[in-house]
Structures are given as C-alpha cells and as structure tokens.
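Re: [ENG-882] Designed sequences occasionally contain unexpected residues at chain ends

Forwarding the minimal case from QA. Structure tokens:
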C-alpha cells in the first residue's frame, strides 16, 4: 500500500490560503455547511461552542484539533438535550443511546479539558512600566503645579 506524503512546500501552500480560498466555516461566515444558524438547535449549538471556547481561554488559544473537539462536544450536547427534552415530555427514549451519548460527552470533555483556562491578560513589561510611570506623573502633577505657583 502506497502512502501519500505532503512535502513541506505543499504544506506551506496549504497554510497560506487567502481568505477567498478558504471555506465560509473557516472564515467564520457560517456555523455549519448549509445551515443558516437561525433555528433553535443551531443557536444552542453556537451557544455551547462559544461557552466552551471561552472556557478554553478564547479562540486564539485553541488548536484546530481542540476546536473540532469543542464542536463535536457541542453537537453531542445538543443531541443529548433533545433526548432529555423528549424524556421530560413523557416520551420514551433509547436509554442505551443516551448512555452512549453521555459516555461520549465525558470522553470528549476529558480530551478538551473541563477546567477553565484563564486568558493571559498580563501586560508586557514595557507596557506595565509605561502605565506605572504615567500613573506616578498624574499623581504628582498637582504637587508640581502647586510648587510652581508658590515660587515667586
């Protein structure tokens, strides 16, 4: 069996796709292919995805693989919520399917990580020092003004 390998030159071409060459999903224009996102289920999927992305410290801190796991978790969670809604309405559900779905959610959550990750908002040292210097100058400005006015 022959395996195809992608050379480093080919990988660079793949990575450097312009916005026009990428899909609407990649560019953030669509949630899912062929879905306009206005249905209750699509909105719930989007809500769960957004919440999980925030829990992971923001979209800029997610690898594509982790983001795909977030999407799979959101999809499975929406399906589980649908099943639980039917159950709460007195309908019968397949308990085996529900248990498998719950188990899948647990496994995906373990892969994603269930602990919230704080977004690093620590300023860079030069920015911090500039802000501290500006703050000190602002606090000392009234004293300087009073001292300048006191000098004949």
């Amino acid at each position: 069996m022959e395996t195809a390998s992608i050379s480093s030159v080919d990988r660079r071409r793949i990575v450097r796709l312009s916005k026009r060459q990428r899909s609407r999903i990649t560019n953030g224009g669509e949630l899912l292919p062929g879905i306009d996102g206005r249905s209750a289920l699509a909105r719930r999927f989007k809500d769960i995805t957004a919440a999980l992305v925030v829990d992971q410290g923001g979209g800029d801190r997610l690898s594509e693989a982790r983001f795909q796991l977030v999407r799979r978790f959101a999809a499975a969670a929406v399906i589980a919520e649908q099943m639980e809604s039917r159950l709460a309405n007195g309908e019968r559900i397949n308990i085996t399917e529900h248990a498998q779905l719950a188990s899948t959610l647990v496994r995906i959550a373990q892969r994603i990580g269930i602990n919230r990750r704080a977004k690093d908002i620590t300023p860079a040292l030069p920015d911090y020092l500039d802000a501290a210097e500006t703050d000190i100058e602002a606090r000392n400005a009234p004293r300087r003004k009073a001292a300048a006015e006191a000098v004949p």
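QA comment: On inspection the terminal residues look reasonable. Helices lie at 8-15, 24-27, 40-55, 64-88, 95-112, 125-150. Proposing we downgrade this to a documentation issue.
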